[in-house]
Every structure is written in C-alpha cells, then in structure tokens.
Amino acid sequence: MQTPLKIAVVGSGLVGSLLAIYLKKEGHEVHVYDRSPDIRKINFSGRSINLAMSNRGWKALDGVGVGDAVREIAIPMDKRAIHLVDKLNFQDYGQEGESIYSISRGTLNRKMIDLAENAGAEFFFEQKIWDVTLNEATLHIGETERGEWEEKKYDMVFGADGAFSRIRHRMQRQSMFNYSQEFLNMGYKELNIPANPDATHKLDKNSFHIWPRGEYMLIALPNLDGSFTCTLFMPFEGENSFDSLTDRKQVEAFFEKNFPDSIEVIPKLAEDFFNNPTSTLVTMKCFPWTYSDKIALIGDACHAIVPFYGQGMNAGFEDITVLYEMIQKYGNDWKTVFSEYEISRKPNADAIAELSYRNFMEMSTKTADEKFLLQKKIEKAFSDKHPDKWIPLYSRVTFSDRPYTEALAIGDFQNTIMEEVLRMKNIETIWDSPVVENKILELLQKA
Amino acid sequence: MQTPLKIAVVGSGLVGSLLAIYLKKEGHEVHVYDRSPDIRKINFSGRSINLAMSNRGWKALDGVGVGDAVREIAIPMDKRAIHLVDKLNFQDYGQEGESIYSISRGTLNRKMIDLAENAGAEFFFEQKIWDVTLNEATLHIGETERGEWEEKKYDMVFGADGAFSRIRHRMQRQSMFNYSQEFLNMGYKELNIPANPDATHKLDKNSFHIWPRGEYMLIALPNLDGSFTCTLFMPFEGENSFDSLTDRKQVEAFFEKNFPDSIEVIPKLAEDFFNNPTSTLVTMKCFPWTYSDKIALIGDACHAIVPFYGQGMNAGFEDITVLYEMIQKYGNDWKTVFSEYEISRKPNADAIAELSYRNFMEMSTKTADEKFLLQKKIEKAFSDKHPDKWIPLYSRVTFSDRPYTEALAIGDFQNTIMEEVLRMKNIETIWDSPVVENKILELLQKA
C-alpha cells in the first residue's frame, strides 16, 4: 500500500473507471470527474462501435478482480465470418479456445462505474474541467469556458478524458511537447441488426462479421440481447461515400448491390443511416505523457488510435497494468513511477497505432483476397506444427501480453518470409507440403 | 483590383507585414495586430538567427516593389566558409553571381512595418488576440485570456501569427483538422562577433560561416555594422550539450577545444552564452489552412520548419506570391482563392519541412566530410558542362522558384545517381574525367 493521496481522475469512461478501482485498491481517495451526465441514467446509443475485449483487457480487469463481472456481459467470437457478395467464408482468429469478446460500450461503461463506486471512488458528473494547473494538480471547473471557474486542488491528476483531452490540451501548450492528430478521410456510422422475436441472433452469434469491399466495409458484433451492433466504414467523399448517399433510395440501392445478405437483417436501414451521426476516425500521438509527479495522461488521452485492430480499449487498459507494475516497483516515488510508465508505454502505443492503421487494409481488402487467405492457411499450418517458431501477428497482438513493439517487428519479419513463400511455384497446391515447411524453417534461420 | 474589404492580419512579423502591403495594393482596408510592442521602439536581440534571403523571398518582395528597399540592408554571401578544427575550406553556393543574402531579422522587420505603414496599413500593437469566431471573422481581443474581451468584426482574417498561432489554435479545435508539432532534441543560442574598431568584419564578410562538428555546429552570418550574428546549435542533453555547459570555465574550454578560431572573435562568449536564452526548434504541420472565405493561415502559422535550409522566411513570402497569383486568377471569389492557395502550397510546405530537417545533417556533418565535398565537386563539374541536365538540389531550393516538391523528388533521384558514381573505382582521381561524365549521362537516361 502506498501513502494515501487525494487523486482526481478526469473522465469516467472505461479507462478512467478501471484506473479508479486500481487507485482505490492502493488506498487513495479518488474523485472521478466527467463533463457528461452519468451514462447509467441516459440512453447511450447510435454512435459507438462494439468493443472486442482480448487478452490485454482481461489481464487488467483480472488484475483488480473484476474480470468475472465483465465476462457476464461478454460474448466470445472465435472467428471472422467474411460475407463476400456471393458467399460466406469463416476464418478462425486463433487456436482452439481462443476468442475475442464482443461487449457493448454503454453496457461495459455502466458496469465499470458501478464497480468503481463499489470500490469507493466518488463520481462527479456534468462537471466541466476547462483547465489544470500542472505544477499544483489543480482543476479549474465551471459551466462555460469563459464563465466563473471553481478550483479543486489534488495531490495528483490523471487525464483519462479521451482523444480530445482538456488535460493534455494544457500540456500541449508547454514548450517541447510533441503532438500530432491525423484524421482519416473515412468516417463510420452505427447501424442495427435487431434480435429475432425469440431473442436469438439473426447471424452466427460467435463470429465477428465482416463485409469487406475494399474502400469501405461493414462489420457486425453481437450483443447479449440477440441484436448486433453494425458499423459502416466508408470515405466521406467520392464514388462510394457518405456524401454520395443522400436519400433513402440511394442507401437501400447501395446496400442491395453491395451487402445483399444484410438487407433482410437491417430492417430500419434508412432510419439508422440518416438518424445516426457519421463519426470521424483520428490517430493522436503525443509526448511526454506526464508532468513531474503531478499529472499523467492515460488511454485515448495520450494515444488515440483507429479501431481496426480492436485494441483501443485493450491498449488503454494495458496502460493501467503497466502503471500498476511501476507502482509495485517504485512505491511512493511517483516521479519515477510516471517516468518509467511513459517510457515503457510510448513505443508500444506508437506500435499499436501503426498496426491499427494498417489493419483497415487487412479487414476491408485482404480478407476478400484468395492469396491472403492462402497465406493465413500456410501460417496456421506451420504454426500448428511449430508453435514455438511461429506465432501469427494477430495472435501476438490479441492473445498475448508481449509488447506491441515486438508484435510489429516480428510481424514485419514474418511478412517478408511469407512474401517469398507465396512466390514459390505452384504454392496453391503444395502449400501444405514439407517443401513449404522447410522453406519457412530455412528463412527463419536467416533472422 | 478587387472589391475592397476590411481585412485583419494577425501578426506584424515579416510575413504579416508583407501580406499587408499586397492587400493594400489590392485596395483593401488592412489592420495588422500584434500582441508584442512595436519592434521599432524596443531593443530586439539575443534570440534570433540571421535570415538568408534567397530567390523566393526576393520574388515576393519585388512583386510588390519593395525588393530594392530591402537590398539596402542585405549582405550577399556567395559561399560557405567551412571552419574545420585545423583548416578553413570554401564552397560556392551556386554559379558565378549567385548569392544568398544575410539580413538581421530585427532590421528587416522594422523596415517591413515602415513599408506597410507607408502603403496605408494600420498597425495595432500590444493587442492580444485570444480567439477568433471562424465563420464571422471576428477577433476577440483582451488583456488576459480569462479577462474581458472586445470583439472586432472583419470581412476576413489572416493568421500570420507564427508557429504558436492563436488563429490556428481555434481551427485546431474543429473536427478533421490535421495537426502535428515536433520538437528537435536540440536548441540554439545566439552569440555575437562584434565589428573591428573601424567597423569592418572580423571574418570574410561575404561568406556564410560554419563550424561543422557532427552533433552540434556553430554558424555566423554578417551584419551591416561589421558584426556577425552567431548561432550555436547543440543538443539540450548529453555529452556535448547545453546542459553540460554550466559555468564560464566549461563554456570557454568547450569553445577553445572545438571552435579554436572563434575564441578571439567572440570576446563576450560566456556573457552571451549565459545571458541569451536557449531557444527550441519545432516542425509544425497542419491542414486545412483556410476556413471558407473568412480565415487563412500563412507563413509559420501553417508550416513552421527548422532553420537549416534558410527557407523559413522564403517559404512564408512565397505563400504570399502564390496567394496573389490566385487573387489574379479568381478575383473576388475568395473561397476559390483560399482553397487553391492551400492546395497549391501544402505539398510544397511539407517538402521544404523535410528538406530543412535533413539539411542539419548536411551542414553539421557532411560539410566536414571529404567524400561529400568530392560529390559537390563532381556535381558542379557536370552541371557546368550540362546546365540543362543537372541543377543541384541546393540551387533548386535556393536560386529558383520551381516547386519545393520538385526539388525534393529530383534531389532524391540525383542522390541515387551520385551514390553510384561515388562507388566507381578510383573516383578520387577520375572524378573530372569523361568516364564519370558519361556514367552520369547514362544514369540520367534511366529516369
């Protein structure tokens, strides 16, 4: 246990709530602030992508004993269901028994706040933080940016306030603060596949459904109530774009042509399409993440990534795991805790940002490509035979807690090997032969 | 002439003042705001790098008839004087008659404000702009960020307020605004070489002086009064760093060892070193640069670069040249003027950012490298013989007004050729022979 401090966590999202539980466990007084109303008291829908909890997320939850409470609201998905225009393919995510878990963001957030309150954290909703005095850990709170502000002094402030963090905003105005935000020319929109009348799922419940179409794609993840939360990713402008679909007729014709098997399961397609907002996708990087022993950023506030690897929440939760490791190691020396935390996490945050950016291409284009599916088969066959020699990239990211930097580097190396293997003569017929196996073994030796 | 508008220019620096002259010429009412006092009334020194005006800068000045007034305060530099620890080399910048021009920033800024006032622009100093309403071109002005603000409505606002622009700051808070700021782990400090008692220069007046030492370097540019403004570029931390030089003795020992021939010409070395601030170096990129027909960023406010190519001011002035071209083309259609301006300039701003970043290595390391000097000699010999086939990168950037993007791309191609040429057997002895000439001709054909 550490010397008890008075700590503010700004942001009551997933990372803020879980961090509050960890800090309570260490004996601190914890106040969590959020500019929005209590998510448990409002209708939260229409603008989110379902979460895919994987190894790193579970590790952080289990580390403070709340994993099982979350497992109750999670649905395992052990494979991709790839909806081509004329057929349906399946592709396992990992080995037998390995799954990622679909969870609705709203449901999980409500649960996490309950758990944090039970642990003793105090929540203050509809409290707008406009500024922070970095060297004093003082929050400036008020109704409007230009109106009266109240000051609240803490021993330490965590900024868990997401990609558009106000806490980071203040840090950004210091000299030597590196920062970037880059938006994709693509947005996303939530659509809904309702449950059957008997509350069963209209599509395979234990699959991550993808309709890969190159420049755009549709995905669907299951919910507990039998529904699926769908997300359409598409460019803002151009031939197949949000801008090009301006009325009911166009939307329906677009889906009939490009996602024919989705039509019967999305009954309120046009309503969803025009009622739900089109959201943006941003990659945000910055450094440093901390200020002395007073301020630390965590989660999306210091590394917002695009959602194509399903690792945003997992990476944010892993920040907490690493922070907690540093607390175990350095105790009350918060300056060292913070500096070791940011030094450890920054390269990994950059690596998962890169992997996530690249993965749009894999999801939207490669999953529809025969050559890519062949590559995955070869990798799987080899990995089954030599599990010590080949862990596929997806598994390194999703089913392990080894650093993201390692996954990125080894993944790139494996890719150079697979490119050479795919150039082998008649690879389509010999892919499962000892010739290919030996070729891979030989190429691995060159590392 | 356009329909007269009421236009605010935020920032009375070099770009803001020159832009004001252009806008007055078009018949607009022009108000220039600056948060600082009038530079003509204060002592401005100790924290700047002398400017190197080159082709793009002169073109913008001559375009509005003020080039000759500026030539009066400029000193031509036709070569690099490269101070190695034990000898002095010279290297011409271009062809006979081609020079870059040393100008003190303070002197030029004062002159530009005089010229803009003469053209009819009105200046408002010590006026702090805290915010701008983008869709109404309204400035919010006040003593402090949290105090009372006054509103000033314009037809159009230009943000010429530098790398830490408040106008951009507001644009940054919009969705889909891409932004990055990256600081080098290196800073700079101004030092001074005073004039001789008879007001002559202590070093060759028409040279850009460099002391290249790898990780750090010293430069010196001439002033009209016989002095030189020196700039020391060095890492903040590490073995040879600002942090490592903490007292008078250390500074003097460092200079004696590493810049021996500078000792006798910098009499107040330690005073300058400890009195002058250590400044940071940032690369800032963003997009978009404009908002509808109301707001446009220009100069460092939308593309701050590191100073190693001497192109910061030149690129900012070229923004004005391009903006003016668009005005000639599209008249009162400011929406199109702005959008064509940003589309034309953005890739070029990115290209000069990249070239400037790379050029630290050229200045600090390569100028001390025999192989690099040989490469320059080969390029020069070939270029003299085939001026239509080979314009060196430095000349493309400095002595032409062709796009920076083109300079970057062709420069990279030329580099691949020179790498191959430098690998030729006995290149040190045959560099001026027809064998080498033919090799280059042959490699150029492969383009």
Automatic annotation (TrEMBL), chains A, B:
<keyword id="KW-0503">Monooxygenase</keyword>
<comment type="pathway">
    <text>Cofactor biosynthesis; NAD(+) biosynthesis; quinolinate from L-kynurenine: step 1/3.</text>
</comment>
<keyword id="KW-0285">Flavoprotein</keyword>
<comment type="function">
    <text>Catalyzes the hydroxylation of L-kynurenine (L-Kyn) to form 3-hydroxy-L-kynurenine (L-3OHKyn). Required for synthesis of quinolinic acid.</text>
</comment>
<dbReference type="InterPro" id="IPR002938">
    <property type="entry name" value="FAD-bd"/>
</dbReference>
<dbReference type="GO" id="GO:0070189">
    <property type="term" value="P:kynurenine metabolic process"/>
</dbReference>
<keyword id="KW-0521">NADP</keyword>
<dbReference type="GO" id="GO:0006569">
    <property type="term" value="P:L-tryptophan catabolic process"/>
</dbReference>
<dbReference type="GO" id="GO:0043420">
    <property type="term" value="P:anthranilate metabolic process"/>
</dbReference>
<dbReference type="GO" id="GO:0019805">
    <property type="term" value="P:quinolinate biosynthetic process"/>
</dbReference>
<dbReference type="GO" id="GO:0071949">
    <property type="term" value="F:FAD binding"/>
</dbReference>
<protein>
    <recommendedName>
        <fullName>Kynurenine 3-monooxygenase</fullName>
        <ecNumber>1.14.13.9</ecNumber>
    </recommendedName>
</protein>
<dbReference type="InterPro" id="IPR027545">
    <property type="entry name" value="Kynurenine_monooxygenase"/>
</dbReference>
<dbReference type="GO" id="GO:0019363">
    <property type="term" value="P:pyridine nucleotide biosynthetic process"/>
</dbReference>
<keyword id="KW-0274">FAD</keyword>
<keyword id="KW-0560">Oxidoreductase</keyword>
<dbReference type="GO" id="GO:0004502">
    <property type="term" value="F:kynurenine 3-monooxygenase activity"/>
</dbReference>
<feature type="domain" description="FAD-binding">
    <location>
        <begin position="6"/>
        <end position="353"/>
    </location>
</feature>
<comment type="similarity">
    <text>Belongs to the aromatic-ring hydroxylase family. KMO subfamily.</text>
</comment>
<dbReference type="InterPro" id="IPR036188">
    <property type="entry name" value="FAD/NAD-bd_sf"/>
</dbReference>
<dbReference type="Pfam" id="PF01494">
    <property type="entry name" value="FAD_binding_3"/>
</dbReference>
<keyword id="KW-0662">Pyridine nucleotide biosynthesis</keyword>
